[in-house]
Amino acid sequence: MTRAWALVALVTLAGCSRSRGEMPLIVRELGSPAGPGSGEPNLAIAPDGRVLLSWIEPAGEGRHTLRYAHLDGSGTWSPPQMIAEGAGWFVNWADFPALAVLPDGTLFAHWLAKSGPSTYAYDVQVASSRGGGATWNGPIVPHRDGTQTEHGFVSMTPWGPAAMGVIWLDGRKTAGAAHSAHGAAGAEMTLMHTTMAADGTLGAETVLDGRVCDCCQTDAVRAGDAVVVVYRDRSEKEVRDMSVVRFVDGRWSPPRTLAADGWEINGCPVNGPAIAADGATVAVAWFTAPNDKAAVKVAFSNDAGATFGAPIAVDDGRPLGRVDIVMLDRDAALVSWLEQGEKGAAALRVRRFGVGGSRGAAATVAESTGARSSGFPRMARSGAKVIFAWRDAADPPKVRTGILDLAPAED
User: Do 334 and 350 contact (CB within 8 A), yes or no?
Assistant: First the structure.
């Protein structure tokens, strides 16, 4: 049974002429197109403003199905469409599939499939559709090393009008190394990039960073004329802070630390960053825990990610991370994260931040759990609406969605 809920929250919104200061917002649940046992939700925005939701469902006998639906103008999800189905997939709470869309509407989707008997031997699979999702080409494996090692934590962003940029964590350097646990000595993961056209043609592989954290999500966005990639780095001393690389003027920049948190941890926290942009304004949210002091932070750039201002505290004191971020306009962003409650409970929280450092009131979007099975909640903004997707803790669990209306009510 679908649970009905509504939340009235006070969140400061820039760009709303009706009111100065705080405005009440209502977050309401949408009927979900996903079935029982569904998980690994993700959201994307098409060029026409449609919101696309993707997720994985069990298909029995060790098989899984990747599906998607779009939100129509009436606020209803379309019937689900299948992207792919198969056995031997690598289905993981933190390394989830995604959709991305080119300016001409061509869809790209990725998922993961086992490549060998080792726990972390799996490949990225990328398929494309020029027919609005009715038929799909591929899948194509974007990495060409041929090793039975880990490849995942993919980000996709348009690379011009006819190709998709694909970024992933690559384990080719771990081949033959002791990799029974992430972060093992001699098992360095690499941050890689290539491009893929709709017909499956691949561009050159480029190493963006030769030593990165092993299993944190990556994220990428186009900001003006630059592509900005954010990820958790890994120094020789096991400091795992946020780093940024940029593609601008036809070349990739060297990696640069976004914020020197100084989190030294001998293992991967499985808690990656999120990035959003509006023109040259870029915002990044991330989780960190130096000296065992957990925190979620956000930082802004006004020069397409070339430099960032001082980090701003996001959380309410007991964050679990699992962040996401969307721009509300060029002056403000909305950050989501999981905040720990009592006895394993957690809440999906959101808070608005201004580029100048203002910090709005936090609001709870949904009750959740801190268990891995709850996954990583996602957000996407289309026009005056923000869409949320998360996996609930019901029995059986399933993907749920909600909507936040940013438009001021009529007087």
Answer: yes
**Cβ atoms of 32 and 399 closer than 8 Å:** yes
- 35, amino acid identity: G
The domain locations on the chain are: 6-405
276-324: pLDDT as tens digits:
999 999 999 999 999 999 999 999 999 999 999 999 999 999 999 999 9
Global confidence as pTM: 0.92
Q: Are 319 and 338 in contact (CB under 8 A)?
A: yes
How many Å apart are CA 247 and CA 196, to the nearest integer?
A: 16
292 phi, psi to nearest 5 deg: 60, 25
> Is residue 288 within 8 Å of 263, Cβ to Cβ?
yes
Exposure on the CB side of residue 10, measured as CA atoms within 13 A = 7
Outline where 81-199 has alpha helix (H).
none
The CATH fold assigned to 6-405 is Neuraminidase (2.120.10)
For 214-269, the DSSP string reads: SSPPPEEEEETTEEEEEEEB--TT-B--EEEEEEETTEEPPPEES-----B-SS--
Look up residue 275 and give its amino acid.
I
Nearest residue to 402 via CA among 363, 370, 346, 372: 363
Tens-digit pLDDT profile for residues 321-355: 999 999 999 999 999 999 999 888 999 999 999 99
DSSP 15-56: T-TT-SSEEEEEEEEEPP---TT-EEEEEEE-TTS-EEEEEE
Burial of 17 (0-12, 13-18, 19+ CB in 10 A): exposed
In angstroms, the CA 59 to CA 48 distance is 32
Q: Which of 253, 294, 248 is nearest to 271 (CA)?
A: 294
Handedness of CA 277, 280, 283, 284 (dihedral sign): positive
270/161 Cα distance (integer angstroms): 33
Alpha-carbon distance values, 301 to 121, 149, 229 (Å):
37, 35, 13
